[in-house]
Design brief:
Blueprint (H helix, E strand, L loop, with lengths): L1 E4 L5 H13 L3 E4 L9 H6 L7 E4 L2 E4 L1 H12 L8 H30 L7 H24 L12 H13 L8 H10 L3 H6 L6
Parallel strand pairs: 1-2
Antiparallel strand pairs: 1-3, 3-4
The structure holds glutathione (GSH).
Length: 202
């Protein structure tokens, strides 16, 4: 059985748990990281002291998006296009997500993890501007194709799908992005997304 280590309020852990459920894999998840800490056994599996980490029949892997690619390749080829160009065009959104995460990090930490008296309007304004600018790029893609993976849902939808929920859940001003909204509405009806990604932000 697949083992996943990581607290579920982490974006990077949500991705892996959601993927496992999309694929229909049985898994067990252990809370690690944040207030749960990390013991020596965990650090031996992941020397970065970060979550998530998985173990699949003795195979240990960290880096959330590498885990998604592995799970799709091993268990769900229908979620990962075989054609090299289609795959690369999808894959770029998985790398791009880390740049998006940088744009969202400060405003997320401020609005979710800090008390109101610590809220800095300049940080919030910068977060609104940077995430909005990047969402315009996503909107442009989704105006031309229904999914970031291409014509059908796949693992390239998972990284930004996870961050999109946070963006919609944060109490901040947003522009109108109809294709992004349409994609998000197609995600929220997926059971693995609803139960693992759409949890309260903490
Ligand atoms: N690039 C890594 C980033 C992992 C990462 O930054 N994880 C954060 C949580 S989202 C973490 O481990 N923070 C420390 C902690 O939770 O204790 C990945 O995608 O797996």
């Amino acid at each position: 059985m697949l083992t996943i280590w990581g607290r579920l309020n982490s974006h990077n852990v949500k991705k892996v748990v959601w993927a496992a459920e999309e694929i229909g894999l049985e898994y067990v998840r252990h809370d690690v990281g944040g207030r749960f800490g990390m013991d020596a056994a965990y650090l031996a599996r992941n020397p970065n002291a970060l979550i998530p980490t998985i173990e699949d029949d003795g195979f240990v892997l960290w880096e959330s998006n590498a885990i998604l690619r592995y799970l799709a390749e091993a268990y769900a080829p229908h979620l990962w296009p075989a054609d090299p160009r289609t795959r690369a065009a999808a894959d770029k959104w998985m790398d791009w997500q880390f740049a998006y995460a940088d744009a969202q990090r400060e405003v997320f930490l401020m609005l979710v993890r800090k008390p109101p008296e610590a809220h800095d309007p300049a940080v919030i304004a910068r977060g609104i501007e940077e995430t909005g600018r990047m969402m315009t790029i996503l909107e442009d893609c989704l105006a031309r194709q229904p999914w970031l993976t291409g014509e059908s849902f796949g693992i390239a939808d998972i990284p930004m799908g996870t961050y999109a929920h946070t963006w919609y859940a944060l109490d901040l001003a947003r522009g109108d992005y109809p294709h992004l909204r349409g994609w998000y509405e197609r995600l929220i009806v997926r059971p693995g997304y609803a139960s693992n990604v759409m949890i309260p932000l903490t």
